[in-house]
């Protein structure tokens, strides 16, 4: 049996470059308003880096953490901080997840959801967990979400 092109492929929605750049700019701006230097990352629906911006003096180590938070949010289709709440009482799962590359089970990453579809993820790192979350929410707000 030969499959048709429609049967062989899956189409998905993903964030645009323009939207990714608008979101990371809003994140860094919010951080500056709060007096903190943050790194901001947006990944597309496949977890690939779509936009990144580092505020002057933001921690270098936080570059990878911001990207990982965005990746975690899109991968699990939930805020990165919620992941820890789901695994904290299961030691084997908690330890196993913590050993996975690119997984950040703490706050600062959020899925980007448009019309009920996950089109990307946003991640912020460099300040407190609460401040990272506020900055990420500013990025979502810049997209009208």
The total tally of domains equals 1
Separation, N- and C-terminal Cα atoms: 44 Å
Say how many strands there are.
Answer: 4
Outline the biggest β-sheet: 4 strands, antiparallel
Strand % is 15-25%
Strand order of the largest sheet: 2-1-4-3
Low-pLDDT parts are none
Helix content: 40-55%
Radius of gyration: 16 Å
Shape: globular
CATH class, please? Alpha Beta
N-to-C SSE series?
Answer: HHEEHHHEEH
What is the tally of helical segments?
A: 6
CATH topology: Beta-Lactamase
The computed structural class is alpha+beta
Roughly what is the average pLDDT, rounded to an integer? Answer: 96
In short:
The protein has a single domain, classed as Beta-Lactamase, CATH 3.30.450. The protein has six helices and four strands.
Explain this structure.
The protein is globular and about 60 Å long. The chain has one domain (14-142): 2-Layer Sandwich (Beta-Lactamase), CATH 3.30.450.150. α2 (17-34) crosses α6 (129-142). A 4-stranded antiparallel β-sheet has the order 2-1-4-3. The chain contains 6 helices and 4 strands. By secondary structure, it is of the alpha+beta class. 47% of the residues lie in helices and 19% in strands. The chain has helices at 5-8, 17-34, 61-76, 80-87, 91-98, 129-142, and strands spanning 39-44, 49-54, 109-114, 117-125. β3 (109-114) and β4 form a beta hairpin. The model has no long low-confidence stretch (mean pLDDT 96).
């Amino acid at each position: 049996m030969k499959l048709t092109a429609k049967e062989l492929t899956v189409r998905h929605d993903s964030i645009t470059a323009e939207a990714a750049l608008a979101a990371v700019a809003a994140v860094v701006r919010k951080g500056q308003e709060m007096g903190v230097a943050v790194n901001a990352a947006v990944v597309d629906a496949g977890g690939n880096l779509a936009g990144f911006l580092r505020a002057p003096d933001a921690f270098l180590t936080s570059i990878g953490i911001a990207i990982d938070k965005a990746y975690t949010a899109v991968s699990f289709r939930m805020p990165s901080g919620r992941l820890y709440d789901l695994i904290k009482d299961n030691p084997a799962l908690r330890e196993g997840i913590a050993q996975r590359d690119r997984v950040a089970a703490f706050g600062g990453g959020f899925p980007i959801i448009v019309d009920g579809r996950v089109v990307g993820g946003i991640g912020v790192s460099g300040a407190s967990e609460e401040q990272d979350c506020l900055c990420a929410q500013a990025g979502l707000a810049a997209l009208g979400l």
